[in-house]
Amino acid sequence: MKGKAVAWALVATSLPMFMVAVDNLVVTNALAVIARDLDTGPAGLQWVMSGYILAFAGLLLAGAALGDRIGRRRVFVGGTALFTVASAACALAGSPGVLIAARAVQGVGGAAILPVSLTLAVAAAGAERRALAVGVWGGVNGLGIAAGPLVGGLVTEGLDWHWIFWINVPVGLVAVPLALWAIGESTGERRRLDVPGTVLVTAAVVAAVWGIVRFAEGGLAALGGGLAVSAALLAGFGAWQRRTPDPLVPPHLYRVRPFMLSNVLALAMYFGVFGSIFFLAQFLQTTMGYSPFEAGLRTLPWTAAPMVAVPVASALVDRIGGGILQAAGCLLQSGALVWLALTARPGVSYGAMAAAMVVAGTGMGLVFAANPSTVIGSVAEPEHNLASGVNNTIREFGGALGIAVLTAVYVHGGLRSAVLTGAAVVFAGAFAGFAMGRGTARPGSGPAPSGRHSARSAPPAPSRLP
């Protein structure tokens, strides 16, 4: 491709991905206003975020496999169109149920966009411009995440919360024809879709989240029932994975120690971060009195710090070791959350919280930089994309569980208890990093794949979180 054609292809792949990244956290600084307008409480609000995350996470691997089978551009364009329609439905929502359902459909669209976006960008750029494509992909994703809370606050304050979704519509209307014009079609290995496996594991997490949310509303029996159903579904998932010739996750990966430790650490980090920022963003408005836009500005030290920390930490992975860097990131994040939990009270000054947010963002940056390296470095090259897709899924599920669990803790114990719980989980994740140590397998040096598993899924985006 010539330079101009490559540029247009990168723009075409970046626009929908930017929408997906922004919408991951765009509602954080609009939640207080949404709660008043739709007359809902913490449990309903958490589903506004979790509905999106669960649908997105549960279908990431399926989206990648579908792109390989029927065409990546086709899936990308279809996902963009679905995301755009769902955004309009979110904007028109007049009740919590409609908003939650529309957010879930947004997640389905996002799961079709993200896994194939990098593959399409790299294919358009060619081998000689591969680094450019990867850099643009990561930069746009990071910018979207950093901008999400700020854009949400600005639009909510200047217009109305409905407009944080309306702004996606013109972007989508431009992105669909642009993608059809600028991006070529491609396919990959025609793998069978593991529909039963996808349904079982997603339903298991949804059941657990539902039980925890019901517990937050006072339903102890619902908690037990939800967790029991979740355990049964997970057992069914495990049994199915052992039987099917095309499992969602090849069983031999569960025996790769660095791979498993990396995913445990990622789940712990995202659990604590998503759950904590969910409440701290509301604290800035409801307790400290900031407007949605002012709250968005004041979370920038947290959301933007990883963009500075990731390049520095990436240069240190080989020198220090991916496990040690991730352990350090968890310790920084955990310490910052403890700091915020102890200072977040009526009458506190923003200055007392700002430094902790910088520390939190720096800790996340260390994990964002090193976690993809230890995930990819632990498996053979044909399984790099599959390993990345599994990691993406686990991180998103961790975020959904974090919001649900900390909502229950918040309802029964208040903000401090909720954030301290998140800090404890992140702290526990540090032990997985220490267990990995300095040693990080070089990409391609991991165990050989067993069977025919070579999923095409986007690598872990180092900036999926604030």
TrEMBL record:
KW tRNA processing (keyword) present: no
One Gene Ontology term from the biological process aspect of the record: response to antibiotic
Organism (species): Streptomyces griseochromogenes
Keywords tagged on the record: Antibiotic resistance, Membrane, Transmembrane, Transmembrane helix
Transmembrane segments: 48-66, 75-94, 100-124, 131-151, 163-183, 195-213, 219-240, 261-280, 324-342, 348-371, 417-436
Protein origin, superkingdom: Bacteria
One GO cellular component term: plasma membrane
CDD domains, A to Z: MFS_MMR_MDR_like
UniProt xrefs under Pfam families: MFS_1
Protein name: EmrB/QacA subfamily drug resistance transporter
UniProt GO molecular function: transmembrane transporter activity
Compartment(s): Cell membrane
